[in-house]
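ok, trying the design again with the full structure, not the truncated one.
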C-alpha cells in the first residue's frame, strides 16, 4: 500500500487529491490523506464578490468532505517534516498525530505578508481568507452607518474614504466590487452626499494590471476613473494609522478603511523545510514537479516554483495549479508503477480580470478582449474551475439573483476575528482574539 499525504487544500492540493481519487476507482494500492488548516476549500477568485453581496460567503467555500469518498481529510496544521522517518507531524487543538508517507505532496500555498510593511498589520484589512472578505463587507456597512450618525463633516468624509493598496488583479477586483457595492447601497442613506464618498487605489507601478499588458491596463484604469475611483500610480504607502494614510508623494488621505492586497510569503512550514528553495522561500521543483534529491517529495501551486521549457517559473495562478495537479498526480502514479515521468508543460488559456460593473479585461490565447465580453469570460472560467456541482449551482443562483435584486445592507456576524479595524466599538473585531462581539450583538458564526 502506497501512502500519500497532501499538505494544503488550495487549488494544487484539492485537484491533486481529486486526480488521485479518480485513480483509486481502478486501483487499490493507494492510501491518501489530505491535511488542511480548514475543513473547506476557499475559492479565492470569487472573494471580491462577497464584498458586494454578489455571492453568498458560504458559496465561495467548498466543504472538503463532500468532494472525496476514498480520501481521508484532516483539519489540522502540519508543522514538522521528518524526511528520514518519512513522517509529518500534524497538530490540532493541542493534539498531534504522526502520519507516515511514501509520497508527500507539498501544496501549502502562501499567506499575507503584512509584517513586511511596518504598521500595516495593526490597521489594514488583509485579503487572503474568507473572513477577510466578510469583515470588509461589514466595514463598508459600518462606515456608512457611522457616517449617517456623525455630525462632524471631516469625520464623515474619512469614514466614507476607502483605500486599496495594490493594482494587480486582486486589488483591482476588490476595488471594483467595493465601488459596485457602494453604488448599490447609497440609496439607503439619503442624508449622505455621494460626493463625500472617496475611493482610492494605490499602485507602485506606472500602470495597473501589468499581467494583461499596457493597452488593457490603460483601458481598465480609464473605466475605473469613469466610476469615480482615484488612481495613485507610481506611488506607495509610507505610513498609516487608524485615521490616515500617507503616500510617497506626500499626499495624506484621512480614512478608516485601508485594504492591503500586496505582499505574500510562503508559510512558516514551507520556510522551515530543508528542501530546494528560491530566495523568497518558495520550493523549487524539477519540471516533473518532483523535488530534486528528495525521492517521493513533490510540490506545486503558490508554494512552488516550477520551471517552464525556458527555465522561467510558471505564474502562480489557479489555471496553472489545476493543470500542475493533474501532471503531478500522473507522475506520482508513474513513479509508483516504475514508469518514466513527464514534465509539466501548459500554456494558459489566458488572463481574466473583472473590474466590476459588468466590465473586465482579458487576454485569451493572445487576443485582447475588454468590456462586457471579458467580464463574461471571467465568470465562465471561474464557474468552470469551481469544484463541486453543488457550489456551481449555488453561485449561479447568486449571480442570477443579484441581477434582479438590490444589494443587502446588512452586517454578517462573526465570532472569530478576521481583521483588526472596525470603526465603531459596538462590534470590535481585533487581532489575535483580544476582543469579540459583545454578547448582545453576537450572531451565529457564518463559517
Amino acid at each position: 500500500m502506497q501512502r500519500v499525504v497532501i499538505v494544503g487544500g488550495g487549488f494544487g492540493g484539492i485537484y491533486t487529491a481529486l486526480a488521485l481519487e479518480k485513480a483509486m476507482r481502478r486501483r487499490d494500492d493507494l492510501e491518501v490523506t489530505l491535511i488542511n488548516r480548514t475543513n473547506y476549500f476557499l475559492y479565492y477568485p470569487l472573494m471580491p464578490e462577497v464584498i458586494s453581496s454578489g455571492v453568498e460567503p458560504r458559496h465561495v467555500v467548498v466543504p472538503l468532505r463532500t468532494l472525496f469518498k476514498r480520501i481521508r481529510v484532516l483539519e489540522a496544521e502540519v508543522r514538522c517534516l521528518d524526511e528520514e522517518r518519512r513522517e509529518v507531524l500534524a497538530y490540532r487543538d493541542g493534539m498531534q498525530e504522526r502520519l507516515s508517507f511514501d509520497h508527500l505532496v507539498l501544496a501549502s500555498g502562501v499567506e499575507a505578508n503584512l509584517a513586511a510593511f511596518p504598521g500595516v498589520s495593526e490597521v489594514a484589512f488583509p485579503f487572503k481568507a474568507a473572513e477577510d472578505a466578510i469583515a470588509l463587507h461589514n466595514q463598508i456597512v459600518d462606515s456608512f452607518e457611522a457616517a449617517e450618525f456623525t455630525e462632524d463633516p471631516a469625520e464623515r468624509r474619512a469614514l466614507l474614504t476607502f483605500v486599496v493598496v495594490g493594482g494587480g488583479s486582486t486589488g483591482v477586483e476588490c476595488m471594483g466590487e467595493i465601488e459596485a457595492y457602494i453604488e448599490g447601497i447609497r440609496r439607503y442613506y439619503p442624508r449622505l452626499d455621494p460626493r463625500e464618498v472617496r475611493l482610492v487605489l494605490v499602485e507602485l507601478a506606472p500602470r495597473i494590471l501589468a499581467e494583461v499588458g499596457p493597452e488593457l491596463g490603460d483601458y481598465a484604469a480609464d473605466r475605473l476613473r469613469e466610476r469615480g475611483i482615484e488612481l495613485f500610480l507610481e506611488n506607495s504607502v509610507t505610513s498609516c494609522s487608524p485615521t490616515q494614510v500617507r503616500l510617497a508623494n506626500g499626499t495624506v488621505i484621512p480614512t478608516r478603511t485601508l485594504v492591503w492586497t500586496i505582499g505574500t510569503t510562503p508559510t512558516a512550514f514551507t520556510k522551515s523545510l530543508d528542501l530546494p528553495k528560491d530566495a523568497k522561500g518558495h520550493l523549487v521543483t524539477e519540471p516533473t514537479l518532483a523535488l530534486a534529491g528528495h525521492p517521493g517529495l513533490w510540490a506545486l501551486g503558490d508554494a512552488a516554483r516550477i520551471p517552464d521549457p525556458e527555465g522561467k517559473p510558471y505564474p502562480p495562478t489557479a489555471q496553472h495549479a489545476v493543470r500542475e495537479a493533474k501532471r503531478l498526480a500522473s507522475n506520482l502514479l508513474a513513479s509508483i508503477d516504475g514508469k518514466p515521468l513527464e514534465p509539466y508543460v501548459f500554456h494558459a488559456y489566458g488572463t481574466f480580470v473583472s473590474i466590476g460593473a459588468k466590465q473586465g479585461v482579458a487576454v485569451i490565447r493572445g487576443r485582447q478582449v475588454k468590456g462586457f465580453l471579458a467580464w463574461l469570460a471571467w465568470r465562465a472560467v471561474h464557474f468552470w474551475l469551481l469544484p463541486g456541482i453543488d457550489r456551481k449551482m449555488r453561485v449561479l443562483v447568486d449571480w442570477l439573483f443579484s441581477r434582479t435584486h438590490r444589494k443587502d445592507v446588512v452586517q454578517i456576524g462573526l465570532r472569530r476575528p478576521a481583521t483588526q479595524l472596525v470603526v465603531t466599538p459596538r462590534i470590535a473585531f481585533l487581532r489575535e482574539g483580544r476582543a469579540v462581539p459583545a454578547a448582545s450583538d453576537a450572531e451565529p458564526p457564518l463559517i
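Keeping the full-length input from now on. Confidence is low (pLDDT under 50) at residues 415-447.
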